[in-house]
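Obj.: predict assembly geometry.
Materials: sequence records (below).
Method: joint structure prediction, all chains together.
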Amino acid sequence: MLGHSVMVLILRSLALTLTGLLLGGVSAFWMSGLFGAAPVTPASDISLEGWVSDWAIGSTSANAYTRARVARHGLLALAKEEAVYFIRNRDDDGDPLKASCHYELQGGRQDAAWWSITLYDEESRLPMNDDGALSIDATTVGDADTWTAVISQTRPEDRLWLSSRGAEQFDLTLRLYRPLPSLLATPETRLNPPSIRKRHCGAGS
Amino acid sequence: MRALVFPAILVLVMAVIGHVLTLHLVPSVIMGTAMNRLAAQGAALHSFRLAPRTTPQTQLVVRPSPDLAYSICAYHLRGPQPLRIRAAAYDDYGSISFFDARTNNFATIRIEETAPDSSGPDILLRGPAGGEPDGLFDGHDLRSPTPRGLILIRRLAPTQQAYDRVRAIASADVCALSSSAGTISE
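Observations (raw structure tokens):
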């Protein structure tokens, strides 16, 4: 009888231990943004017109949540002195970016040696297409003070283009390599955050 | 009511342990998976390999930049021997960055700005158990916080022509165990 009670106690303790470990693991995944498409989380410490970043990326000072999130969504990211990364997953109206919609992306010069904007799918991968329009960068737009690009599934005529074909929901990553010290000091005044205007959704996007 | 106290405390304590353990392990597990994937793609330890031009079909890690050419060297520094690393000079944006097994970017060196001549930056990387510099080496002397890690050369290559330009020079990149500061064991 005593043996039975002890066995029940052990089994109950084991079940409670596993439940606790599972809860802890799931909460860590959730708080780090490790579930699905969540490269953008409330833990991101810089947010400018929808573009979010975390200056601790790549740094030994990054907290455990940032470290886990970056390992999942941006492995081998550089520390901020060499590059900073901004991610945006909503348009100017606050709606999620979708491949079924047609957008106009507009930006200008940046306080960095070189910059690029790349489109990624929900799994933080380049969308599976062969359009050769995965990104635009400082060399593409030349010396223009302002530039405009189209984000759509079909190639526009004579326009800069980011292809969303092969993605469902997506996000954009703005990379700024060798950011100027002024940008690192006051990103809120020095970053030139590109706008994303939705033109239409549905067939033909 | 009292009967619920022990179970609640046990679940709470285990949840905290599970939470901390998960956060601690995730970066190392993901980094280890990436290194294994590179090895499966034919990348050898202590040797730079120029990755194919980044496309949706060739991407190896999450969020690769299609505008950059990547050369990758995985290392495992178990003993005192350091790695000798040299990145061939490039006349456009280029950097060589070092990541430990916990994904920390513990060093980045700019290729074009640090090159004293056209041969590119010269670097010694020691493991946690590596010895002290011998004083003869006048390049960059680095120490990896963990025995394993990855070294990544990024060079700006937004077009096929630029990528071909990188391919022409990348064969001069060096990542090899060194018996001393100046000697490379091939």
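Conclusions so far: The longest helix of chain A spans residues 2-32.
To do: check interface contacts against the pulldown list.
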